[in-house]
Structure formats: C-alpha cells, structure tokens
Write a structure and sequence with these properties.
The structure holds two protein chains of two kinds. Chain A has five helices and five strands; from the N terminus they run βαβαβαβαβα. A five-stranded parallel sheet of chain A has the order 2-1-3-4-5. The longest helix of chain A has 13 residues. The radius of gyration of chain A is 13 Å and the shape is globular. The two termini of chain A are 20 Å apart. By secondary structure, chain B is α+β, with helices and mostly antiparallel strands. In chain B, strands 1, 2, 3, 4, 5, 6 and 7 form a seven-stranded antiparallel sheet that branches. In chain B, helix 1 crosses helix 3 and helix 2 crosses helix 3. Classes of the chains: A alpha/beta, B alpha+beta. Chains A and B meet through helix 1 of A and helix 1 and helix 3 of B.
Chain lengths: 135, 153
C-alpha cells in the first residue's frame, strides 16, 4: 500500500489536502499526518513514505529544513511535493537547488491536484535518490 | 492587488462572494464585530528595516461556515478548526500577495499565523490601514495592518 505523509501546521489544511488527493483518485493510500518537519523526520524513521506533501512555513522545523534533512539522510522517498502559499522566487530557487520540482501554491484546486496526481502516476516507480527527476 | 487576493482566496477556498464594505449598506455593517476569530501574521523585511503586523478577523458565525465549505464531510467543527481556517485564509492571502508583488516588494517574509477567539474588541494600537468586506451578503470580515517597525524585540 502506498504511504503518503502530509505535513502542515494547520490540521484543516492537512485534511483538505488529503481530501483533494482522495478526490483525485488516491485510493488504497495510507495517509499519515504531521504538523511540522520534525514530526515528518520522526515518522520517516519508522515508516517508509512513498510521497511527502509539505508546507514550507511550519513551526519547529520548516519545509526547507525538512527537505534538506531528508536528502542528508537519503530517505528513499519517491517524491516530495511542496504545497505552500509562500512560494516566492527565493523559496523556489532554494527548492530548485534541492531538486524539488513539484510545487503547488495555495489555495490548491481539485483540478491542480488531479493534474499533479496524474503526473506522479506516470513517473517511474523508483526512489529519487539519484534520479534525474530529483524529487 | 491585495483586494483581488482577498476575493480570490475566499472564492476558491470557501466558494464565497466577497463584497467591499464600502459597496454595502453602511448601517448593516460594523467594524466592531464580536465575538470573532482572528489570526495575526508578522510581515517582516529580511534586512530588518521594516515590520508589519496583519490581523484578519472573521465573525464567529462565518468561521464555521467557511470550514464546512472547505470540508463539507466534516461532522463536527471545533474552535480549533475555526482558528485554523482563519490562519489559513490570512496566510494564503498574504503569501499570494507577496508572490504577485515580488518584483515591486522584495525581501519580505511571513511568520506562521497566531490565532485566537475574542468576545471583546482587541486593543493593539491604531492600524495604518483597515480593509472591510461582507461575505455572502451577510458576514463581516476585517483585515487590519499595523506598523511594528522599531517596536519589535
């Protein structure tokens, strides 16, 4: 079963993202919620997530720091998707340097999520450690 | 441009129509809505030369409606849900506004929102700007901007 971590400091935002993913055809997916980057890292020690959806602005550990830590520890996550309202040029540049190519800007619509899910479904089914696709 | 973001966020997130308060019959709207949910975000320049505080206030009857609009299948709505919603809306409005204006306004960042509920007016100084709206022909929403430059610790 596919495992997906959804990280945002807002419980409502997490519930909405999961709802959009389910509406976009993500059935038989184990969704796990986290409120910040530190919780995501703690989860990754026990769970092997296939996908991580994360906000950037979170307390304790923000999204950029989380992604840096995930890369340092070479967790075999297939894809990391950033969902944020604060995707300015500098943030995008930093994400690009980290190899993050999937970024959605809040408020996310069903159409945008469906397009993302369709795109992810078409990607090769391999971990992204040394992939040309990056995350 | 900020007003466009406010309309867009409410329309996309909550399928709600936004009307500027000045276009609304004045006697039907008051800035002194209580009780209300609020969220506050600090907007600060990365070179620490300027800091602003932005507060969004939603009437206590509007917030649960917005939560239901976002997630209709949610069976019960808590105070935390309403506070989350208020925080998410403000975060999204300001984030999108900074994105749209990043060629003109550079180097500003946002803090995570602080949220709460009040049944009496807040006293936080005099706003430099107040934007007031009516949602769905009935519910008041207010957004206030405060200059905190040289006031932060």
């Amino acid at each position: 079963m596919t495992t997906c971590i959804v990280s945002d400091d807002s419980a409502l935002a997490r519930a909405f993202i999961i709802k959009l993913l389910k509406m976009s055809g993500c059935e038989n997916v184990n969704f796990i919620e986290a409120a910040n980057g530190k919780e995501v890292l703690d989860l990754c020690r026990n769970v092997n997530p296939d996908y991580i959806f994360t906000d950037l602005t979170m307390p304790e550990m923000d999204g950029l720091t989380l992604i840096e830590k995930l890369k340092e520890n070479t967790y075999p996550v297939k894809q990391i998707i950033v969902i944020t309202s604060s995707g300015n040029k500098e943030a995008r540049r930093n994400l690009d340097l980290l190899g993050i190519t999937h970024i959605l800007t809040k408020p996310v619509t069903h159409e945008q999520m469906k397009e993302l899910v369709n795109h992810l479904s078409a990607l090769p089914n391999t971990p992204q450690e040394n992939s040309e696709y990056g995350y | 441009m900020l007003k466009d973001q406010i309309s867009q966020v409410f329309e996309v997130m909550a399928f709600s129509e936004v009307i500027a308060a000045e276009e609304y019959p004045r006697h039907l709207f008051s800035h002194n809505m209580t009780p209300f949910y609020y969220s506050t975000i600090q907007l600060y320049s990365e070179n620490e030369t300027a800091e602003y505080s932005v507060r969004l206030m939603l009437s206590h009857t509007l917030a649960p409606r917005l939560v239901t609009a976002l997630i209709p299948e949610k069976k019960s709505i808590s105070e935390q849900d309403c506070r989350d919603m208020t925080g998410e809306i403000l975060n999204t409005i300001l984030g999108n506004f900074l994105l749209e204006t990043e060629d003109e306004i550079q180097g500003f960042s946002l803090t995570p929102p602080e949220t709460g509920w009040k049944n009496q007016p807040m006293d936080a100084g005099k706003p430099i700007m107040t934007l007031a709206y009516i949602i769905d022909d009935r519910y008041p929403v207010s957004m206030q901007f405060f200059n905190r430059t040289n006031h932060s610790a």
